[in-house]
Each structure stands twice: as structure tokens, then as C-alpha cells.
Amino acid sequence: MPDNIKKFIEPFLALPPAKRWLVGGIVGLSIAAFAVLIIVANRTDYKPLFANLTTEDAGEIVKKLKDQKVPYRLSADGKAILVPAEKVYDLRLTLASEGLPQGGGVGYEIFDRKNFGMTEFVQKLNYQRALQGELSRTISQLAGVEQARVHLAIPEKSLFKDAEKPPTASVVLKIKGGRSLKEADVQGVVHLVAASVEGLDTEHVTVLDGKGKILSRGGPGDATAKMSATMQETQRSFEKSTEDRLQSLLDKVVGSGKSVARVSASFNFKQVEKFEERYDPESAAVRSEQRSEEKGGSGALTGVPGVQTNLGRTPATQPQAAGGNSKSDETLNYEVSRSTARTIEPVGSLAKVSVAILVDGKYDIPAAGKDGKTGKPKYTPRTPDELTKIEALVKSAVGFSAERGDQVTVANIPFQDTEDAAGGVKDEWWNAPLFLSMLKNVLIAIGFFALLFLVIRPLLKSLKAGMPRTTFVPEENVEEKVREMIASQQKQLAVQGASQMELIEKVKTESYQASQVIKNWLDKKES
Description:
Blueprint: H1 3-13, H2 17-42, E1 46-50, H3 55-67, E2 73-74, E3 81-84, H4 88-97, H5 120-140, E4 145-153, E5 168-175, H6 183-196, E6 205-209, E7 214-217, H7 223-254, E8 259-268, E9 273-298, H8 307-310, E10 323-344, E11 349-359, E12 362-364, E13 378-380, H9 384-398, E14 407-412, H10 433-466, H11 478-509, H12 511-526
Parallel strand pairs: 5-6, 11-14
Antiparallel strand pairs: 1-3, 2-3, 4-5, 6-7, 8-11, 9-10, 12-13
Helix pairs in contact: 7-9, 11-12
């Protein structure tokens, strides 16, 4: 064995067994810790390539990864695929160019494979599958939707219009993070599906969530429910927008966090249609007029009788008036003036607005004392003039109308106790961030020194005490030291031999006492 190695091993072998186990355990744990550190540092970091995959998409992606000889891992449920972190983005782009993942069901790529032996029934079935898959992909891209499945029921067309059945659709949505979709989002999904299928009406589209709750279902029976939901949404939207406008206005006047605005609005959703017909007896207009005039007399025409005379080709002699009469009739019909009006009032007109405003007062903070602490802040309420101005601003902002019965209430109430008001009593010194940071560092240093002086240092001392001490003797005194050691050992052996001989002689001469001593030893040992 080389001297260098022997130099390190001999002190270890000279230790007692307990200390050798202790030193060996510490060395083993250190080697294991370094080994784990090296393994963790050199381990390949896997990150998710895709998650929440369908079985079909996961199978296709795994097949592509095997073809490219890319290492991968599957999650416990088989819906997520993990690959080395440095290859995540490259693989996503590569698989996206190949149409993976498809996102639930097959799409129009089903028609990329041409099959000349395909029957008409299979072709229609493939079209329905493709349409369902494309709708599922589109809906899954919406915000808040994690996964979607679409089922279409498209009946065969009939020769008779009365025998035809309308197509229907069902949509199952898996919402992200347990959230809920708004009514507008659900209606968007309904209209998307209805517009994508020929002849499909929105009333025949049913939307469910992952728990089986119906989010939207068409049909005449739900018209009232839909109208009520729309009314409530309109009311909430108006109240929210009005509150935001008032809050932004109040923040500029009294400061941020010093006011609260709440609005309650009432709408009239009745649809009113008025027919109005008015008559004005003071004004009359001629409706119709009829006039007739008649004048008559007797006389004789003279001339040559015949065709020429009858045709007027020959002049006739002037008749002689023997006498004459005349008649004139006139009829006027008058109509009283009338006006007709048809008025349709808008649906959802604002009926009443009630506004409540809470305004905080002012706080006067006294100067800090000698101990660095400030006293109790003094609260000062708003003056009536200030409240009146705030009320006037609010009325102008909401379009206040006394005829509608609108109400605006402005109250001055302190928002917080003066002990905890902003700028009041300072935090105690032991809660200061600087002190907490220093305390953390001091505790870490104390722990390090405790480990050093209470564990490592006693261990080193115990190892040093157990190691054999080696005395280096000069070469010229070696023989003398050896002779002295031999003489000392011989002297000790002689003294031990003399003591043994003396003891034997005493046992021979005093055998009874010796036997009693041995008997007492045996009795003590048995007890």
C-alpha cells in the first residue's frame, strides 16, 4: 500500500469502533449528498408539451415523437405529454404545422384522404363528424372554455315540408378553473353553432356545463326567462357604468378611497303602443261640392227639309224665341278636421334612479413628539357647503330628474377609526421591514455558528483525542530508550511475580480464610 494512502488510513483504523462508525457515516452522507446534487444538476428537465389532450390527440403526438426519436413522458392520467425543456417550442411549432393537436375530434382534414369506394351515407357521416370537430375546436378557443364537445342531430331531408324535422345541437363545455360563463358568452356559443349548421335555429341549441347544468336551452317556453335575464343584465350594466363614472368624479374631488358610490336604477320594460285620433270642431273644411245649372226656351227652325239641312250644310233661318226658363242647384259638404297618430314607446326606458354617496371627512395629524410617535389624529367632518356641491355634481352626472322621482343622498361618515387612520400612530419598531430582515440574517448566522461550535468542533476534538499520539525520538537515543523500556517491563514482571508468590503462600498457610473470601465472592456474584 502506498505511504500516502497508508498515512490517511492508519489514524482511522486506530480509532475506536464507535468513532470509526461515526466518521464513516459522516463521510458516507457527504458522498451521498454530493451524488444527489450531481444527479439533480445533470437531470433532464421535462416540461409539458401539451396538456388536457384527448386520447386520439395524445396517441398521434406520441407516434410523432417516436418517429422523431424524442424522449417523452406521460402524466398519470395520460392527458399531458412532457418533453425536454429545450425542445418544447420547436416541437410545438412542428406539430402545429401538422395539425396537432386537433383539439377534440377530427375536423375537415378527414376529407384529405380520398376513398373512391365511399358511399353517400359514409360521406354524410364524415361531414357531420368534421363539422362537430371544427365547432369543438372553435369553441375551445374562447376565453374561459377549457374543452368543448358538440353533438349534431341532422335529420334527412323529406319530400314533404310537413314531414321535415329541424336539426338540433347539444354543446358540453368544460369551464376553466371552476368559473362560470356570462349569459352573453353562452348566447355567443349558441349563435355560433346555429350559424354553422344549415337550417339550425337558436331555439334548438342546448348548452351544458361539465356538471350537467343547463346554461342555455331554446324553445318558446324560455322566451320569458331570456327576456328577464336580458332585463337584469341591462339594469346591472347601467348601474355599474354609472357607479364607475361617479366614483371617478368623486376621486377627483375628495381623493381616492375617500368616497363610495352606489346606484340603484329602475327600468320600464313595458312595450306600449298608442293610437290617438283628434277632432277639431272649430275648424271645418269643404269635403265635396256639387253645382248644377239649367237654362231652357221654345222656337222653330226653318229651312229646306232634307239631309243637307239636317247635317247643317245649309243655313237655317234663325228661330224666333217665343219664351224661356233657367235653374241653378248648388250643394256643399263640410267635414270636421281630424288627426290620427300612432306612437310606440321604446322598451327599457329609465323609470327612476336612486344614488347613495358616502364621503369621508378630513384628518388632521399632529406633529411627531420626542419619541418619534405622532398623536391621535383629529377628525374633521365635511361642511354642509361641501356636501351641497357634491350633491349638485352627482345630480348633474346622473341626469337627475325630479319628475321621475329620482333620489340622491350624500352622507358624511368617517370610514375608519382615528387610531388607525392614515398617517396616525406609526408601526412599532419590531414590525419594521428593516428590523425583520436583520433579524432573519442574525438567526441564520446564529444557526451557522451553533452548528460549527456545538457539532463540528466537538466532533473534531473527539476524533483528535482518540487518535494515538506518536512520539518522535532522535535516532541517537533509540537504543537507550529501548533498554529503559525493557528494564521497566522486567521490573514490573518481577514485582507482579513476587506479589503472586506471596499470595500463594498466604493461601497455603491460611486456607480457611482464603476459602471464605472465595465463598463471599461467589455469593456476591450470584446475588
